[in-house]
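Methods — Computational structure assignment.
A single polypeptide chain was analysed. Its primary sequence is given first, followed by the predicted tertiary structure written as structure tokens.
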Amino acid sequence: MIRLVLSDMDNTLIPFGADHVSDRTARAIHELLDAGVPFGPATGRDYVELMRFFRGDEACFMTGILSNGKRVRAEGRYVRTVLLGHDELVRIDEALRGERGMFLVCYPNETDASNPAYCVRATKEESAPFERRSAFTGICVDAVPDEDMIAATIACPGPPERMDRCRALVAEAVPEVMIVSPFAEWFDVLPAGVSKADGLEVLLEALGVGLDEVVVFGDAENDLAVMRKVPHSVAVANATDEVLRAARHRVGACADEGVADALLEVARATRAGELPAFLKEES
């Protein structure tokens, strides 16, 4: 039986750039919850952003893996919070100097509904496209502020070769972190050893749920570690080729609300005491 369902957000549960989940997706989540199966995000987004995505309906993320595993929530209680090191962030910033258009974005642990973020050494002209795309309020600064940061990202405009260049620079200068890309021209910064997969272990222990009792939906590079970990890994049809190869199962595309369809099927199957139909088919 399935006892927990987790889903990535951008381009998995919600089309990238959309302000919030669809009404149908919200209803599917509540149908699943009513069937007794907890649902939550497994995402690089944090609490404030999730409040926006779910239009203030906190029932949709009382449980989940937030900020790519740096924050883990179980039934409304935070069971883990990992902050980024100031020294590592400073060295990332130093490694990016001289690279036109690349810049570090730091998200303070103490935040508000405007989702403020520090854009280090970026002009407002450089930060504005990323602010619109990822829905944060950029504050342009000359150096990494000395305060607690729950997350950091790297803006890397340009072709894939520029992304490769950024990976190499950060890997050489700051081996204590890793960077993963949830979508083009953008990296999430993670402490080495911290990921959605690592966060899943913490969450399952807190809930008393087994690895074979959880379903995880995803689409991109930052989902790979957790997709490779769980028996019931599910890719949406629009996932990257690497995720499509890693996942054991597939559902419809994000734009077609494939995850919402799957949530309704999990709810139906739970009530019937069955395995959901889409988990009976290997991709």
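Note: The first strand starts at residue 4 and ends at 7.
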